[in-house]
Amino acid sequence: MFAFLPRVTPAPLAMLTDLALNLRWTWNHELDTLWRTIDAELWERTHNPWAVLQNVSQDRLDELSRDSAFLDELARVLESHRRYHDEPGWCRACVGEGEPATIAYFSMEFGLSEAFPLYAGGLGVLAGDYLKTASDLDAPIVGVGLLYQEGYFRQTIDAGGQQREAYPYNDPNSLPIQPVIGSDGAWVKVGLRLPGRKVYLRVWQAIVGRTHLYLLDSNDVRNGPGDRGITAKLYGGGSEMRLLQEVILGVGGWAMLGALGLKVDVCHLNEGHAALLVLARARSFMRRMGTSFWEAWWATRAGNVFTTHTPVAAGFDAFAPALVCKYAHEYLQDVGVSQRDFLGLGRLDPFDDHEPFKLAYLALRGCAQVNGVSRLHGKVSRRLFADLYPRWPIDEVPVRHVTNGVHVPSWDSAWSDRLWTEACGKQRWLGAVDALPAAVAVNDDRKLWELAAAQRRDLVQYTRQRLMWHLGQRGESAQVVAVAAQVLDPNILTLGMARRFTAYKRPNLLLSDPERLARLLCCDQRPAQLIIAGKAHPEDEEGKRLIKAWFEFSHLPQLRRRVVLLEDYDIALAQQLVQGVDVWINTPRRPWEACGTSGMKVLANGGLNLSELDGWWAEAYEPAFGWAIGEGGPSDDAADAERLYRLLEDEVLPLFYARDAQGIPREWVKRKRASMANLAPRFSSNRMLAEYLEQFYLPAIRAVRRREDNQAKLARELCAWQAALAAQWHEVHFGSVEVKRQGDQWRFDVPVYLGEIMPDGVKVELYAMPYGELPAQAIPMQSLGPITGALQGYIFSAHIPAERPAEHYTPRVRAWHADAFLPAEASQIAWQR
Ligand SMILES: *Cc1c(COP(=O)(O)O)cnc(C)c1O
After folding, report:
1. pLDDT tens track for 412-421
2. Which residues does the UniProt record annotate as the domain DUF3417 (predicted)?
3. Which residue has a Cα nearest atom 3 of ligand 1?
4. Calculated CA dihedral for residues 390, 392, 396, 399, nearest 10 degrees
């Protein structure tokens, strides 16, 4: 142990250090009473055991080391901690075959806890949830990220409604992390060659249950002052700083895995920021196995997975070619690749010298498997990347989807945890979730309604306290602060909304008719209240104006008790909101929300969603589960606002207040049950991780190992196969097709001329587009052998049921190899016309 504690921990309490440095406390609340007992105020203020341990007095610790009740509780918690760590979990069995595998998950942000602020928003929270799930499921995943001296900004709102930004310093000594110490007893550092110098990166680790998150920072004493600041600020600085951070994450991250002695099978890129790792990985393979660069590229690509989160091409990071070349110069000399070939990897059109270099394109080319983050986003991404697969039908562009999910134990309330535990047991989120819907659905109406009441009461309480704190900090008078104690009402419909204040999220759609909204909230018989939070990017003046509009609305005298705008949206606030609201509102402009996860966080707690049919909600929504804005086409602001008000006025409020003799709104509770049971397991990160494992990681592990075996024999073969295809493909063409009807079948015969390409290097198919209800078809054709007297000509033939007209079918020939990911790795295709 090498982490900073200002004094000695008494021997009987030594294990407290381990517990405090294991971030499992962010989701396992067994330990909460322990920390509270140590120091109640420190605990309440920070909810960070590491901060409690660092700041508690020696006297208090000495006292506790003689307190038998405390020691008993500690022993109990340690036993449960030990069991969690030692008992093999659900994934072990799945990845069991052969050598143990390691999957490295690269992300620019990790949002594990507000006490560990290395995130800006949804991307980071997803990465944090991912690591926690990997721990719960015992998946062999390690995280790779950067340690920033300043995380994302903290928000305050001044008395005029203007957002102010603060950048508190992340003191590594007070974060729950430790330096990684090597076998030689020294702090592990990674050296990275940059033009004219070597930059040293320090390696830190955070322990997340059973998994590890490794972090790099450049604040080493040996570095020059400029380089020491590279990891100063998340998304800070200009284009060059951004590129340098991405070099550190990708190239430095890969080198770090080597320095840690981890043999990595799969690299998973959470968004394109880490794309440079594919180059670093190929170079180290090339050196180790003595292959050419392109053989190494083929070998390692099978083990790379890219998850894209961007719904518009403008969202891809783009760099000037000269800037990229400055940092790639030495690398290219090392691996023997020309500047032009290299730049082509980051361009839509590799031959267009004016195109900037985009990491998303490099990631797409350098990863055999690619996915978007919801069904709709998968479709949007296939369109975004279609030009990289010319002449391919859009549905076959090799971008699949895995819809995001949330780590439920991080977002459920103590009340909901209790209810789920009674129905489904304590182990419910430690494995597959298929059996949960039926189990949780047995809860009766009264129980579900009482759950809502308890959670709403807690949220009202929390909101009042947090508001008082903000008002006090802002310097408001005692009278104003006192009013905060009376805002909201624990018994009325509570709407929640929190998001980044940016144009596409349309945070003010609900405010488009302020009078109508005010009438709705202040209705005497059926009132409602609204809690809002969100940050605008420091340079986004429009976003700040939207915050101000909500600020002013919430300060109208008649609305002061009904609308609360809370400052500083972060994980802690998100947890409280998603636990206590009755309805979560989300109004992005379709299809700009790649997935969206905040709405998933209310599911296990019984909150209902009222949301645009975008991202995850487009695939989750059914009338039995909640409410939808939009028609599933592009968004129309005016129509969406009207629909939002109408839903609230005509459906949400009446349903919530339709009470029976026992005071229970039966129809409302029915929806709660349906949404909890059907959606919470389906949009949990358990389902997400299982999909990545089965559909992406296992195929990647098998493929990358096969390619590497026998001195990379297969990788060399694939590389040669592709080179020959590329050189010869222009020769490929068809003769004229013969179609005959034979009974109720069509028989197609097609002459195909392949030049020097061997017939087993291609696949010939009959392709039909989707038509009405009929899906697209690609029917393999069989070779009947060479055409007599022709050079490299073959007849291919197929029989198909004559259900569709023969004109629907077009013969096509495409590159084929049983061991390649297609068409991702070889996209040659030729059509008969
Ligand atoms: C969940 C979460 C997000 C992401 O929410 P979206 O609905 O995907 O925008 C952002 N910030 C915080 C603090 C969160 O907890």
Report:
1. 999 999 999 9
2. 10-115
3. 122
4. 0
